[in-house]
Amino acid sequence: MSQTQTKPSEIDVAVVGAGFSGLYLIKKLRDQGFSFRVFEAGSGVGGTWYWNRYPGARCDVESMQYSYSWDPELEQEWRWSETFAPQPEILEYANHVADRHDMRPHIEFNTRVEAADFDEATGRWGIRTSTGETVSARFCIMATGCLSSPRPPEIEGVDSYQGPTYHTGEWPHEGVDLSGKRVAVIGTGSSAIQAIPVIAEQAGHLTVFQRTPNYSIPARTKPMNAQYEQEWKSNYQERREIMRRTAVGNYFARADLAAADVPPEERRKTFESRWAVGGTRFMSSFNDLATNAESNEAAAQFVREKIREIVKDPATAEALIPTGYPIGTKRICADSHYFETYNRDNVRLVNIKEHPIHRITPKGVLAGGEEHEFDAIVFATGFDAMTGTLLNIDIKGRSGLTLAEKWEAGPRTYLGLMTAGFPNMFMITGPGSPSVLSNMMVSIEQHVDWVTDCLANLREQGAEAMEAGLPAEDAWVEHVNEMAYKTLYPKAASWYMGANVPGKPRVFMPYIGGCWNYRLKCDEVAAKGYEGFRLEREGSNAASQAAE
Ligand code: NA7
Predict the structure, then answer these.
(1) C-alpha angle 380/382/387, rounded to 5°?
(2) Is 186 in the pocket of ligand 1 (CB under 6 A)?
(3) C-alpha distance from residue 246 to each of 79, 284, 434, 438, 483 (Å)
């Protein structure tokens, strides 16, 4: 008997996705006594950590900081093996949480939500799934993740290739044996930078096709030190609170000095010490690296020198040097021996800006007039980030307006939580919220808490519907934009800007104003009776603007 036959088709809340957002939603909605169902396209929990099983995948947030704060016992019991957890361990953690809290009965696996249709007459969402069922839900919560629609390579001839191809974001669960093989990796973003050193060790020969060189800092992951772990475990709640009060949701020392205010030798010393510690915190060496072009260039120059020191072949080193965009404005990478990998005899870099890929052939890749033959091709070509997954669902709001129509010129949300015209549809870490610019665990918990408190509040006051008001949404979109353009971020053709997808509007999608400021704003809005949202009370069709 299928799971769905025993489930109600009328529920309070439909949740889309069983990653870390979906799992925490289960905990909260169950505690609050809502009826709900969770739909998950994969066969297991974990979201991004379920799909991204490519060799070398690991988190760039320290493991002690990349976990839930809502289970204090688990926080003490769970043991991470390394300072930066590898993907299998994070997936194990997600599975453990699901089992420990008996969450699986709430989740329908292998079930993709294909459409969500708002019925104005009933004020309910019709959620149509890939099993053919349509569920009626008062509320719909999109816990669909920010990097969950892998982008296939738009390269001519892909289908003609006769060997196996793999996308890092859809890596086979059974693993891939690349030993002794001639392998191509196309792309040099975070995924490729993590995968390349591991693939190089297995493969007979590896060729990397690079379009844009990337800045990367050594992660310097190491086995978990018992004393360090204990320090965290003895101070967890206090440190979690400190994390919430930061701009990016991480616990580490931030400089309150501007690079512009210190002499070059001192800058260098600081960069050296951050490089030695490792990880993306390098970008917090000074407080002006994201805003001051000269300071940023000093940091970029430092990393370029490191690349030249590490990579022995000068021509390869030069090809790997990132130029033309400020450091950190494409997501900064954290690697384990990435640049060193180019010193191996079995690794070759092809700079496709100089030797463009003409097409993929039955045997391999034709680039710069040369045909490279491969036994396997790995596409590390990224994602249709932040909006791709939402827009792949046929979402229709009031008057049949589709989300794709509404977001034609880029995503428009109020606080990244809701979008006007789509009542009762919430997004977890949606565009217009700090999301990918922060420790996702911190942002996920903040959003799930805010949304579920909101649902409880609506229930208490007998409100049936809530919707982002257009004026508040317009003001928020303007604010998100204004904040982004105070920084150097819009200068890069990044996935933050939608620039990696041809035809996608160029809009800086996440909110860069900082996690803590953002949280204060969300809390203030709630405290003012959901200021800027429109609430509809029971028995009344008239929407009322929440108290100013
Ligand atoms: P990214 O960061 O979007 O990287 C994708 C890479 O693939 C990047 O180097 C692209 O070059 C390259 N790319 C994309 N399409 C092509 C084609 N057609 N030909 C050649 N090269 C191409 O994705 P990741 O998966 O690495 O990382 C995504 C996020 O996941 C990451 O930031 C972490 O937050 C986790 P480009 O730079 O566009 O020139």
Answers:
(1) 165
(2) yes
(3) 25, 12, 12, 9, 17
Round the CA-based radius of gyration of the chain to a whole number and report it. 24
43: tokens are 């066969």
User: How far is ligand 1, taken at its centre, from the CA of residue 164, in Å?
Assistant: 20
Which residues, other chains included, contact 473 with Cβ-Cβ below 8 Å and sequence gap of 6+? 412, 413, 414, 419, 420, 532
- CA–CA distance, 250 with 62 (Å, rounded to integer): 9
Q: Is the CB of 212 under 6 A from ligand 1?
A: yes
In our burial notation (b when 16+ CB lie closer than 10 A, e otherwise), range 108-129 reads beebebbebbbeeeeebbbbbb
Single-letter residue type at 95: N
Q: For residue 109, what is the DSSP state?
A: T
Backbone angles phi, psi at 535, to 5 degrees: -110, 140
Which backbone phi and psi does 469 adopt, to 5 degrees? -80, 145
Mutate-to-test residue for ligand 1 from 168, 191, 353, highest number of ligand atoms within 8 A of CB: 191
What is the DSSP-derived secondary structure letter of residue 511?
Answer: -
What is the SS3 assignment for 366?
A: strand
Q: Express each pLDDT in 242-294 by its tens digit.
A: 999 999 999 987 788 999 999 999 999 999 999 999 999 999 999 999 999 99
| Strands, E assignment, 190-322 | 205-210, 216-218
Residue 387 near ligand 1, beta carbon < 6 Å: no
* This prediction's pTM: 0.96
